[in-house]
């Protein structure tokens, strides 16, 4: 049985849809990987979710037009860094185009040599298992090969801004 549909796209207003989506609070992540020249690439993403415990799978998505799409599509591994409440400045820094996003950011290297940001609540080093183009994004499914956790207050994105989960 197929669960996909060939129905025509709806006529939902894009701005209204975006506003409705903004009411769903999400965690904030920085996805990191390495370029062919040995430098690092990272970006802010709030589209992160667990998929399976056995095998351990997670997903995230990236706009098909993103400059980083060829890198993330072609690399074998990436790290998903789950940001803590005190790391909103890092989320903002990694969301800006055209600058050295790693400037002033402390990190260590994962077992495959990718950046694990210091102070994160958790991180997942993933094998780039599969990709699914859907709409204007590509869904990346990663098989977790290594992870760690340091429970902290999470950074949350809601209504177009960063919040602490425990803010009034």
Describe this structure in words.
The chain is mainly β. The chain has a single domain, classed as Pnp Oxidase, Chain A, CATH 2.30.110.10. 13% of the residues lie in helices and 43% in strands. It has three helices and twelve strands. It has helices at residues 14-21, 69-74, 88-95, and strands at residues 26-27, 29-34, 40-45, 48-52, 57-63, 77-82, 107-109, 115-117, 122-134, 137-149, 155-158, 161-164. The strands form three sheets. Strands 3-2-6-9-10-5-4 form a seven-stranded antiparallel sheet. Strands 1-11-12 form a three-stranded antiparallel sheet, with no helix packed on it. The longest helix has 8 residues, at 14-21. The model has no long low-confidence stretch (mean pLDDT 89). GO terms for molecular function: FMN binding; riboflavin reductase (NADPH) activity. Belongs to the non-flavoprotein flavin reductase family.
Which secondary structure elements does this structure contain, and how are they paired or packed?
Layout: H1 14-21, E1 26-27, E2 29-34, E3 40-45, E4 48-52, E5 57-63, H2 69-74, E6 77-82, H3 88-95, E7 107-109, E8 115-117, E9 122-134, E10 137-149, E11 155-158, E12 161-164
Antiparallel strand pairs: 1-11, 2-3, 2-6, 4-5, 5-10, 6-9, 7-8, 9-10, 11-12
Features:
Pnp Oxidase, Chain A, 168 residues, 12 strands, mainly beta, 3-stranded antiparallel β-sheet
């Amino acid at each position: 049985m197929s669960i996909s549909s060939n129905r025509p796209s709806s006529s939902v207003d894009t701005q209204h849809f975006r506003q409705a989506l903004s009411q769903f609070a999400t965690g904030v992540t920085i996805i990191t990987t390495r370029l062919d020249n040995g430098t690092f690439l990272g970006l802010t993403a709030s589209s992160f979710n667990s998929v399976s415990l056995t095998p351990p799978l997670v997903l995230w998505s990236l706009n098909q037009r993103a400059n980083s799409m060829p890198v993330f599509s072609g690399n074998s591994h990436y790290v998903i860094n789950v940001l803590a409440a005190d790391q909103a400045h890092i989320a903002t820094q990694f969301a800006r185009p055209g600058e050295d996003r790693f400037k002033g950011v402390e990190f260590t290297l994962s077992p495959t040599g990718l950046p694990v940001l210091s102070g994160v609540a958790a991180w997942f080093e993933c094998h780039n298992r599969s990709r699914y183009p859907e709409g204007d994004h590509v869904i990346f499914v990663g098989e977790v090969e290594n992870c760690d956790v340091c429970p902290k207050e999470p950074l949350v994105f809601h209504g177009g801004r960063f919040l602490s989960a425990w803010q009034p």
